[in-house]
Amino acid sequence: MDLEQYKRAFDEVNRDFEKSVAQFGLPFETDETEPRSRRIATARATGCQCENADTSLWRGWISPACLACRTGERTATFFIDLRCTRHCYFCFNPNQDNYEYFLTHTRDIAGELRQAHAQGAQFDCLAVTGGEPLLHKLELLEFLQVAREFYLDAHLRLYTCGDLLDDETLAQLAAAGLDEVRFSVKPDDDSTAREAVFDAMRRAVGVIPSVMIELPVIPGTRDFMEDLLIRADDIGVRGVNLLEFCFPLCNADEFAKRGFKLRKRPYTYLYNYWYGGGIPVAGSESEALQLLAFAHERGLGLGIHYCSSDNKNTGQIFQQNLVWQQVPAVHDAYLWLEEDPESRFLVCAKAFGDDVPAVCAWARQHGVDFNEDAATPSIAIPLSCKADAQKACPHTRFGTSVNVFERRDDGTLYLHEVALE
């Protein structure tokens, strides 16, 4: 097997995945229409930061919680139950474990936080989401009070649609130490519901330190989104979190009725789908980048963050690969791996077939860690050694292997090769 044959194996997995998704009745776009290079170009044209392996673009201001999300270190999100006052067709809550159970049962999140603290957990960012957390105001306030008692400097945030946020509740949330509230505003909301949310945001500005809007960028809603940014800036909203719009593997009929196509992505980012992140919808990222450009051209003062679907997964990837960093036996068994500091995947350089003996001899001669797989055949070396190996073996073709640690159903650990680039 040579490098190209090995890459084709990943292409086959990609095609098989797309066939399996076809059962939902939603087509993938024929070709990838939104290459990641556009993110970099947009950042250069608008002065945006382009970070986390080009998955996160932001201008003006970004919430510390969004930065913490990239690794998931010292951060946690809680929910009381999954009941909500809204019924958004693109909601991901039905994908959660025990979804039906938590439509009728609640969690004691203050008690959970007390237990985590007793076990030595340290947090810099804590959040409460739902469902709609304000359906349980007393439980929410208790959680915030416990959080502030145990984690004095932690950043505390709340997700809400705003339906139940009156002035008394705002004052209570502020007194409990809430740092940030993220409102949900949807293009499908009727005018009455939408104006009610804007009114709640106006009242929240000046009471809660950071008032934000978080919503997906739904293709075809650019006029609505531009108006949203202007109005949010006018009332003093501190930031808007633009999420890549994704199909959550439920409500397929609604997505099909609206004519959405699924975005074709490089195989590496199929990781999104495996971990409940949904399948990105074609056109969402393009409109998000256009909104960043619009905000730049208009000189809007509020912060705007485009959080792509792959950006949302870096924390998950980082947490899965912690076992390699923290468990000496695991690290020693995979010495040829290195962490990509931005994407958080574990990477190495690989050569195949007839190139293996020469690279193997070079690695032994220079004391370079390597892994030889006779079954493929292939050899893996640290990516940082690739340039030296290429000089010593000029005719060898190397690929970059992208990996993440996973666990089988029986709990055993294994290294999952996600892609070869």
In short:
The chain is α/β, with parallel strands linked by helices and 421 residues long. The protein is 37% helix and 20% strand.
Describe the 3D structure.
37% of the residues lie in helices and 20% in strands. It has 421 residues and is an alpha/beta fold. It folds into two domains: 293 residues, Aldolase class I (TIM Barrel); 94 residues, no CATH class. Strand 12 and strand 13 form a beta hairpin.
Average residue pLDDT: 93
> Within the largest sheet, what's the order of strands?
1-2-11-8-7-6-5-4-3
Q: Would you identify the regions where 5 or more consecutive residues have pLDDT less than 50?
A: none
Rg for CA atoms? 23 Å
> In CATH, what is the class of the largest domain?
Alpha Beta
Backbone shape: globular
Helix content: 25-40%
Given the helix and strand composition, which structural class is it?
alpha/beta
Please report which band the strand proportion falls in: under 5%, 5-15%, 15-25%, 25-35%, 35-45% or over 45%: 15-25%
What does the largest sheet look like? 9 strands, mixed
Distance between the termini: 16 Å
Number of helices: 15
Please report the total strand number as a whole number: 17
Key descriptive features of the protein:
421 residues, alpha/beta, TIM Barrel, 2 domains, nine-stranded mixed sheet, six-stranded antiparallel sheet, 15 helices, 17 strands
Secondary structure blueprint with pairings:
Layout: H1 3-21, H2 37-46, E1 49-51, E2 56-59, H3 64-68, E3 75-79, H4 109-118, E4 125-129, H5 137-150, E5 155-160, H6 167-175, E6 180-183, H7 191-204, E7 210-217, H8 222-235, E8 239-244, E9 246-247, H9 252-257, H10 271-274, E10 279-280, H11 284-298, E11 303-307, H12 314-326, H13 328-333, E12 338-339, E13 346-352, H14 356-365, E14 371-373, E15 378-381, H15 386-392, E16 399-407, E17 413-420
Parallel strand pairs: 3-4, 4-5, 5-6, 6-7, 7-8, 8-11
Antiparallel strand pairs: 1-2, 2-11, 9-10, 12-13, 13-15, 13-16, 14-15, 16-17
Helix pairs in contact: 2-11, 4-5, 8-11
